[in-house]
């Protein structure tokens, strides 16, 4: 009745039967466990379609796969005879038999050895750096206390209570400062070692101090909510796969609220929107600072040149009277000098250099954690496939072994799903490709803003047209039951998902130009919020009948993603400009800041945790929604805990190393543009 396809017995019980210290009677032979995959076909009056079943068998260890197949072959013949005798057209065929566990030797796997070596080196580096930083902080604190003591004694004002209060005040001030000074700055080599310190990296990740761009804090809440939405969807897809009551999925899919799972592709669009917004804002801020520095240098140079006399000495008498004139002339020249519409060789070289440096910084920041998770995922799933009684639908132990390089080049979304390592990493490829497009548009906009804007809208329109064409060509009908039916032609392709990213770039430009100081009439606020909520609600819960016809589907999968970005645009602008109310308070809650910083690694690692824990179970689950939500809560906690460890070991050190290489605070343009652009 429930559609149970798993008749597994118990592998653990099969192994436990041999423990003589716990049982008076045990088998007189060693036992082993086999799983057989069987195809059962019965006429339409009894079972409307063929069913694939997994059957577990505990047998003597002397048996092999051929022996089990022979036994099942006799059972097939007997079943066929009984079906014919009862007038039923049925067939029962064994597809394969495999031992559980298989022959895989985990410790002999070269990938595990490499992964273990890297983990050990990084862990030792982190410990050394942490102890070293602890020593430096203790030394700095003692020196600071001695200095305070000497100052107070010198002033004959030594009062313990005053010092204590002063120290507490200083500590409070330090806590409020996002860049708290705890030690003296060291040399380059020492800073390279300290970049892996658990102390400073842990404080940076777990800090609840709002960043300097306080107006954009709502993005942290949006990022966190999107990640837990992704984890919820993947939890449902994973546990339904190992459930014995598969017809319960059909019942659940008819539930109105289940559309938040079946139509959850928009949660990733939130990541794209945030990435486009942040890349634009950070790029424009860096450009403004560069222009300000250049203007300051030119002003200083002009003042020096004008105030020099014929002998080359500075004429102090002219310094005051000429300064206003020189500044005025400089600004007039800056504004009135005609600019060529053609790029010079120097400008082209500068743009190309900036482009490659920006892309390189992004890759260096994201790839270490990404590469580690790829290796971890391959080893974990190879072990899982060898020891599971189920048949996982993802074969990352094969695809990651063959195609890992596509992930590190961020082009894996351009290949079929069956060849993808870490299927969920299609987002990483899309986001990086969008970043490349975004940086090109931003570099062009420095000199040709109109051309950049026209190109942006042309990309948006071509994305709609291409997606509609592909959807109609395949006669695609969107269904809640099959959210990934068009994964290869549409779902993960950049030309169908770039809309929210471009909308995010527009919003980023608008917020930067207005400095988040937008005055909205109350009628606009009263209309804007309901419209945004209607768009979001209709995109998630609009598939009332469970499916769309061909043309509604075409518009849904094309313009729908952009519409999601438009709705988020209103939320972001309203919250950043002071019209968010309770929504902004919730999204900007300081407690979400640490979780927001962990979303990137949480997104990468959570499916590995799900598959490892689910498919190593002894048997299937009998599910209800309440059980799924409980499991989901556990997965979310485990994902963020694992993310914290991976961030400490790889992501945070990579960011600090980039700062050291780029010259620390003196040259932060490239590093800032690449920050906070992923989940």
From TrEMBL:
Keywords: Membrane, Transmembrane, Transmembrane helix. Residues 158-170 have a biased composition (Polar residues). The keyword Transmembrane applies. It comes from the Eukaryota. The chain crosses the membrane at residues 112-132, 224-243, 263-284, 355-376, 424-444, 451-474, 494-511, 523-544, 564-586, 598-617, 629-650. Residues 158-179 are annotated as: Disordered. This is Nose resistant to fluoxetine protein 6. It comes from Iphiclides podalirius (scarce swallowtail).
């Amino acid at each position: 009745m429930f559609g149970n396809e798993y008749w597994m017995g118990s592998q653990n019980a099969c192994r436990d039967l041999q423990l003589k210290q716990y049982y008076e009677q045990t088998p007189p032979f060693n036992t082993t466990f086999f799983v057989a995959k069987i195809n059962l076909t019965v006429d339409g009056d009894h079972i409307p379609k063929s069913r694939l079943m997994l059957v577990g068998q505990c047998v003597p260890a002397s048996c092999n796969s051929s022996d089990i197949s022979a036994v099942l072959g006799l059972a097939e013949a007997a079943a066929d005879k009984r079906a014919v005798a009862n007038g039923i057209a049925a067939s029962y065929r064994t597809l394969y038999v495999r031992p559980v566990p298989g022959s895989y030797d985990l410790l002999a796997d070269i990938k595990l050895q490499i992964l273990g070596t890297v983990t050990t080196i990084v862990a030792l580096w982190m410990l050394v750096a942490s102890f070293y930083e602890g020593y430096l902080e203790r030394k700095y604190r003692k020196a600071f206390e001695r200095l305070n003591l000497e100052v107070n004694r010198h002033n004959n004002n030594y009062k313990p209570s005053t010092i204590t209060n002063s120290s507490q005040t200083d500590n409070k001030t330090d806590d409020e400062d996002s860049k708290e000074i705890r030690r003296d700055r060291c040399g380059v080599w020492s800073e390279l070692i300290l970049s892996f310190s658990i102390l400073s990296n842990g404080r940076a990740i777990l800090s609840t101090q709002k960043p300097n761009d306080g107006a954009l804090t709502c993005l942290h809440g949006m990022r966190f909510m999107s990640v837990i939405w992704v984890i919820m969807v993947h939890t449902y897809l994973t546990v339904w796969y190992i459930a014995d009551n598969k017809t319960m999925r059909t019942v659940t899919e008819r539930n109105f609220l289940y559309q938040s799972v079946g139509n959850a592709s928009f949660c990733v669009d939130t990541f794209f929107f945030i990435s486009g917004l942040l890349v634009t804002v950070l790029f424009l801020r860096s450009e403004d600072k560069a222009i300000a520095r250049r203007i300051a240098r030119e002003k200083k140079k002009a003042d020096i040149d004008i105030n020099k006399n014929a002998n080359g000495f500075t004429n102090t008498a002219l310094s005051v009277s000429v300064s206003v004139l020189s500044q005025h002339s400089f600004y007039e020249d800056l504004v009135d000098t005609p600019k060529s519409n053609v790029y010079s060789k120097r400008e082209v070289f500068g743009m190309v250099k900036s482009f490659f440096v920006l892309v390189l910084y992004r890759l260096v920041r994201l790839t270490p954690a990404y590469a580690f998770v790829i290796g971890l995922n391959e080893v974990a799933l190879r072990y899982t496939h060898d020891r599971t009684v189920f048949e996982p639908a993802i074969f990352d132990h094969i695809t990651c072994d063959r195609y890992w390089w596509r992930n590190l080049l961020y082009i894996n979304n351009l290949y079929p799903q069956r060849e993808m390592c870490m299927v969920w990493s299609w987002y990483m490829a899309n986001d990086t490709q969008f970043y490349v497009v975004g940086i090109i548009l931003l570099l062009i906009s420095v000199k040709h803003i109109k051309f950049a804007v026209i190109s942006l809208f042309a990309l948006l329109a071509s994305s709609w047209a291409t997606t509609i064409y592909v959807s109609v060509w395949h006669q695609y009908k969107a269904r809640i039951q099959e959210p990934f039916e068009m994964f290869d032609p549409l779902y993960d392709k950049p030309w169908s998902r770039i809309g929210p990213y471009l909308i995010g770039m527009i919003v980023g430009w608008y917020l930067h130009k207005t400095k988040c100081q937008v005055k909205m009439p109350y009628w606009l606020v009263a209309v804007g919020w309901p419209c945004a909520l209607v768009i979001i609600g209709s995109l998630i819960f609009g598939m009332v009948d469970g499916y769309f016809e061909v043309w509604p589907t075409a518009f849904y999968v094309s313009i729908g993603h952009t519409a999601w970005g438009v709705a988020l645009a209103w939320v972001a602008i309203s919250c950043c400009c002071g019209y968010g109310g309770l929504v902004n308070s919730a999204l900007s809650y300081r407690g979400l800041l640490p979780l927001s910083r962990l979303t990137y690694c949480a997104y990468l690692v959570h499916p590995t945790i799900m598959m490892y824990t689910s498919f190593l179970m002894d048997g299937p689950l009998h599910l209800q929604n309440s059980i799924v939500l409980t499991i989901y809560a556990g997965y979310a906690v485990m994902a963020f805990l694992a993310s914290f460890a991976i961030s400490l070991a790889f992501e945070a050190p990579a960011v600090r190393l980039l700062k050291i290489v780029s010259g620390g605070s003196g040259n932060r343009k490239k590093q800032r543009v690449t920050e906070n652009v992923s989940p």
